[in-house]
Amino acid sequence: MHQIDLGVALKLCQDIPMLKERLHRAGLHKTANKMQSAVEEIGYEVASHIEAERDARKAEVTVTHARVWEAFGTTVNRDFFNLMVGDIIGAGEFRIVYAHAHRKDLVLKFEIDSQSFQNVSEWEFWNDNKDDKKVARWLAPVEYISACGIILAMKRTTKPAKANYPRVLPEFLVDRKRQNFGLYKGKLVAHDYGLYHVTVPTQRKKAEWWGDDYKE
């Protein structure tokens, strides 16, 4: 597009009918017609941009799913996959998320890249903090993880309305992309917190050493 923000372009297209009517009322018919032509061109570019984004996203998800499918290899593994795994919900840089085939309240996260450990990170962070109401309140609960950490089962969330996003968040939730959050039991929670920030206190206190006696 001609260096115009997508949101601005969409808003402009929404406002045009009213502006065009005002121009016609003022007798500025040529100006109104020129503006209409310009807006139609912008509208076409906006539609093309949105379609291209959707196509790119679909291609990314398809490739990610293919990698998971290839990893399952044998007929037995793939049969089990089809039995337990439902539709694709979404995919990110490191993981792909599926619906659980038999439990509507769960999703299954498959880790597709080695050494990212985001499934393990979420599993450990949830279990370390699930009894701390101030922290757990912001997290989608985790139910189980596979032995190697490749598959994680998490409670499923629903899409929030714009009004559900608060103005402030706990500082440990550093990946604040809107798609990383959802509604769980009526509250906004993070359902993607594989990346989090641990606040480390810097105030010093007296060191009380223990263990074997130290001899010079």
Description:
The protein has 216 residues and is of the alpha+beta class. It has two domains: 6-62, no CATH class; 77-190, Phosphorylase Kinase, domain 1, CATH 3.30.200.20. It is built from five helices and seven strands; from the N terminus they run αααβββααββββ. β2 and β3 form a beta hairpin. The longest helix has 44 residues, at 29-72. The chain is extended.
Q: How is this structure best summarized?
A:
The chain is 42% helix and 17% strand. It has 216 residues and is of the alpha+beta class.
Q: Please work out how many helical segments DSSP would assign.
A: 5
Order of helices and strands: HHHEEEHHEEEE
Could you say which overall geometry the principal axes of the C-alpha atoms support? extended
How far from one another are the termini?
72 Å
- Alpha carbon gyration radius: 25 Å
Give the neighbour order of strands across the main sheet. Answer: 1-2-3-5-4
Helix content: 40-55%
CATH topology of the largest domain: Phosphorylase Kinase, domain 1
Task: Classify the secondary structure makeup into a structural class.
Answer: alpha+beta
Number of strands: 7
CATH class of the largest domain: Alpha Beta
Low-confidence stretches: none
CATH architecture of the largest domain: 2-Layer Sandwich
Strand content: 15-25%
**Integer average pLDDT:** 78
What is the H level of CATH, i.e. the homologous superfamily of the largest domain? Phosphorylase Kinase, domain 1
Question: What number of domains?
Answer: 2
Largest sheet: 5 strands, antiparallel
